[in-house]
Amino acid sequence: MMPQTFDPAAVGSSHEQVNITVDELDQILRLQLTLMEALAAERVDSCVLDQLCSMAERLLANSVASVMLLDQHTGSMNVVAGPNIPQEAKKQLDGLVPGATSGSCGTAVFNNVPTFVRDTFTDERWYSLRSVVENFNICSCWSMPIRDQAGRAIGSFALSSFEHRMPSSFHKRLLEVGAVIISIYLGKEQQRLAVEKSHYQLIEALERDSVTGLPNAAKLAHCLSTLPPPNSLLILNINNFSYINSAYGWEFGNVLLQKVAEALGHIAQAETYRLQGDEFALLYSGDGIDFTQEIKTLRNYFFEHSLSVNGISFHITCNYGAASGTGVFDKSRIALIKAKRAGKNHHYIYSEQADEPEREERMAYMHWSLVLHEALGKDAITPVFQGIRNNRTGEIDRYEALARIRFKGELLAPKLFLDVARLSGLLPSITRRMIDKSCQIMANYSEPFSINITEDDLSQGYLLRYLERKTSEYGIDPERLMLEILEGVSSTGKKDHIEQLAELKQSGYKLAIDDFGTEYSNFERIIALKVDCVKIDAKYIRDIATNPTSYEVARAIAYFASNVGIETVAEYVHDDEVQSIVEQLGIDYSQGYFYSEPEEK
């Protein structure tokens, strides 16, 4: 459902940056042309608005775009465009009455001002639409009013995100431009003159930085696509610029950025661009650039010359990332990240031999990120169930629900996507789907079953309410459901997380410690939590028959658990010899391919 893009350089950054590709810029211009043709022909084609929404979504990962218009007769708003918004969501939004608590769009029209909400779960402006937030996981929403010729708000153009975030200056500009386009589309009487003017404004908005007047990242991308290789690019990031903004304000910081832009224009024999926030780029033709000398020149200049703003002087330092050849934008970004890792005022020059393998890893991350987002959008997260053998009875009498992704007719193992989910903050989205689908399936059976939960789930604080809703919906007794948590969460977890686990336990859910023994095992905390089960980590069971250390660790855990009345599960039981030792140690349950492969039912 959700289109995705990914910028490797944005990983770990508090500033979001969307790098506009030439293709995306061309799409915007084609959209503009489509609009002009529609106006000239005096025809209304609603797909133009859908195209605008799709274009906006491609410029903000993990989002959906929508257009809502105000019905002058009823005074309510309806969704008229939003190709990737579910029909059920549109039904819930249709008939929205503008007001101070009617979500970002209703508030934007009510106040006739842009409305940017970072957290829809808590912001009072979303009070009347809290059910929409919970049903469709709308985390943030940015809305721009659409105005008629008299300046009255007649609708809204919005980007709704599945992450908590605020818009960058580019995304604000994108919303402004989109709202203008829609206004022109609705006001056909302006026709060619207005369209041509907006066409120019659109290009300026996408290719020119409003603070420094420099060409921006979109313009750089366009130039890199048209200039014949090889090229050379140097990206610099001002150190501690956020401190200046915090101390003196954004307007002061903007003037300082203008001073930096002027200085770069005088020093560097290259085309200067402002990319985002406190980042600039210098584009050189050819690949014979001595970056070490270029960086030395820049460092010396900023060391010897202060930048004065309102009588206050600053000496700045920067991190530098550089690359030559082809694909220099991404490679310079990678180099800048490495320079930052080394500390302030460092530089790094990209090396094909040393850095290409890491770049391939990033490309793999991008691939699996797209797969994961597609899986969540298409509801392709699928539980499979692995039986757990009771070593007292010899029967399989409980199951663990394991997450898989159904992709192109195959079920993908979690090792392919869980790390990506963790880095992307999407583990709770997977957990929700696993709880829902596992409870739905296990409602047809009577055996106990377990589901894995994560520290991210506890951080969001939704588990108890969500579990209560789903177990009630499917008629699941909480005592049938065991929640598996990693050892680190239980042994060193935050106070709030431990309190949540205690609440879950009090509500009847059972608790298991997964991969027990991988970290420093806090036996006292295990007892305090009244854990029902510990699962001995697979690395000790795998070679328990040949490794004395693994044997002793497993024996110690089994002995401790037996003495305090906690059940034990041996993970990765794969042959008779291992099973025999597991039984000798008195381990209560065995789990592994020797007894059960994960199956959908």
Automatic annotation (TrEMBL):
CDD domains named among the record's database cross-references: EAL
Residue span(s) of domain GGDEF: 229-352
Chain ranges of the EAL domain: 365-601
Entry GO MF terms: cyclic-guanylate-specific phosphodiesterase activity
Superkingdom of the source species: Bacteria
Natural source organism: Neptunomonas concharum
Record's protein name: EAL domain-containing protein
InterPro entries per record: Cyclic-di-GMP_PDE-like (IPR050706), EAL_dom (IPR001633), EAL_sf (IPR035919), GAF (IPR003018), GAF-like_dom_sf (IPR029016), GGDEF_dom (IPR000160), Nucleotide_cyclase (IPR029787), Rev_trsase/Diguanyl_cyclase (IPR043128)
Stored Gene3D superfamilies: 3.30.450.40, 3.30.70.270, EAL domain
